[in-house]
Amino acid sequence: MTSCDDNGTDNMMTDRTTYELVASDSNLTSLKAAIDKAGLSTTLSHSGTFTLFAPTNAAFSTFLQANGYASLNDVPAATLKTLLMNHVLGSEMKASAIATGYVSTMAMGSASTTRNISMFINTSGGVKINGTANVVQTDIDANNGVIHKVDAVIALPTVTTHVMANPQFSTMVSALTRNDMPNFTAILSGSANAPFTVFAPTNNAFASLLTQLNLSALASIPQATLEGALKYHVVAGSNKASTDLTNNMTLTTLQGSTFTITTSGGVKITDKNNRVSNVILTDVQCSNGIIHGIDKVLLP
């Protein structure tokens, strides 16, 4: 049996595994070498329903150069294994099923030994993964799943990665990167004080805050107010999934103040000003923490 990929070429696919298809593709030789070094050839040859987002040779060349590696031989096998599993889903997702939102990869990072790292897929204007990798070829069928080629190696996403990738958090990104703020991008990408639990306000939450404060724009929020508010949304040293949030739990934030979690009628946060925010998105697992989306900006 044959199938057509999105470029219209016929390929014998149904009798070959994901690994065999990678091994037979001249544009995936670097990926094949990486899989072999990481000891994942057996995994991707097993029966199953995998989705592999496969970086091209050019993508690997860019990755190696950007990270200071002369060749794949210089990448530690354990590092490579985790990185590659960040390109694999445990279920088959054909192009027709790809939609904007979060899915779980088969990778685990340092923040949690029990929760798989999340992947954000954005389908507005093509298919982009974690804000960095574009899908350039779809639906290469294997007998144990499907392959989609991507034009970049998908790095393990940090809190910063996932906040920046999701358009719902674009105002928060503008706040975090305002030129009078601390280097939040580096802080939330790093390991110092990690793992982080971040309660991320949506764009609508920031719009409501501006209305409440009678301000016309984000730039009008005083420096101390904005810095304090942003730090108040971060809990350092803990990867608190939704299952870890209990009724009347008090959490101490990076800003130094606390807020209270309640779970009756959904998870809510009451800040120091008795303003209540609803948790509307949960468990975006990052390599160095976890994100939950909220519908109101918290104020210490």
From TrEMBL:
Domain FAS1 span(s) in chain numbering: 15-154, 156-298
Annotated PANTHER family: FI19380P1 (PTHR10900:SF77), PERIOSTIN-RELATED (PTHR10900)
Protein name: Fasciclin domain-containing protein
Signal sequence, start to end: none
Coiled-coil stretches: none
The organism of origin for this protein: Chryseobacterium endophyticum
InterPro entries found in the cross-reference section: Adhesion/Biosynth-related, FAS1_dom_sf, FAS1_domain
Lineage: Bacteria, Pseudomonadati, Bacteroidota, Flavobacteriia, Flavobacteriales
